[in-house]
DNA sequence: GTATCTGCAAAATCTTTGCACGATA
DNA sequence: TATCGTGCAAAGATTTTGCAGATAC
């Protein structure tokens, strides 16, 4: 399932697929960053200049409610989106550059389940962002 | 320092203290939840009906930039604030009720440092929210 | 063919800001 | 008293929505 495309998952869920939705789906599927809606709109406009910002908003909301996309918030007041079926990962934000690094750590995942259980809850999701600064100088020119 | 009031910390930082800022400081200091700005404005208005929403916004931003308050985002599009000097903790959100439970787990804190270090970073902060559902029925009527 | 989607523009929501007046140190 | 803060209303930024025409199934 991790190798199914967003479009395939939309069809599997019975969503009506329009040209605009396919474009948004492909744009997000091709992204390896965390675009906000304005950025998705820009990338979608490159494919179809007639697409509207409202449609992009409606589409990401639809996909999110269908569990196809995940909405992220990095604290700058704009929602960002990524493919929910990509392997789960968390984010480390380099506060000196704004760069976002993805990581996964099974120990943290397990620990979170344990903490929720201790509080009488069953974990269904989480948001984890580490804010950090580089230890060594980045390998910049 | 954890037992100093917000007002004391403002004075220590040389912030000019007005009646309005004192009111906002006391309202947040007295809160044991995570009020958004509109809610802070309501609570402050109960003390001084002439205070303006703009002043509350300016004050929480000022306090946040001074490191006195922490800005939280729970994904509903509104910023929330809490006293940054309260003992550090993370949040578990009961998605069935929206209730927010605070917790602290040293293992998770240590693990986060380790992960950042492994990626070549020094951790300076983090955001962690667990989304969960109750295991047993809540003790409701 | 009918229900749903799109584009546009207006509106809703949250937050910031210019300006004249008022308060702080 | 000089500087900085406040209140108000207007403006900004992001997101949502009403409506008429267009499209998917």
UniProtKB/TrEMBL annotation, chains A, B:
It is found in: Cytoplasm. Gene3D superfamilies: 3.30.1490.190, Winged helix-like DNA-binding domain superfamily/Winged helix DNA-binding domain. InterPro entries: FUR, Fur_C, WH-like_DNA-bd_sf, WH_DNA-bd_sf. Signal peptide: none annotated. Keywords: Cytoplasm, DNA-binding, Iron, Metal-binding, Repressor, Transcription, Transcription regulation, Zinc. Pfam families: FUR (PF01475). Binds 1 Mn(2+) or Fe(2+) ion per subunit. GO terms for cellular component: cytosol. GO terms for molecular function: DNA-binding transcription factor activity; transcription cis-regulatory region binding; zinc ion binding. GO terms for biological process: negative regulation of DNA-templated transcription; regulation of secondary metabolite biosynthetic process. CDD domains: Fur_like. SUPFAM superfamilies: Winged helix' DNA-binding domain. Its cofactor is Mn(2+); Fe(2+). Fe cation binds at residues 88, 90, 109, 126. Homodimer. Belongs to the Fur family. PANTHER family: FERRIC UPTAKE REGULATION PROTEIN, ZINC UPTAKE REGULATION PROTEIN. This is Ferric uptake regulation protein. It comes from Neogemmobacter tilapiae.
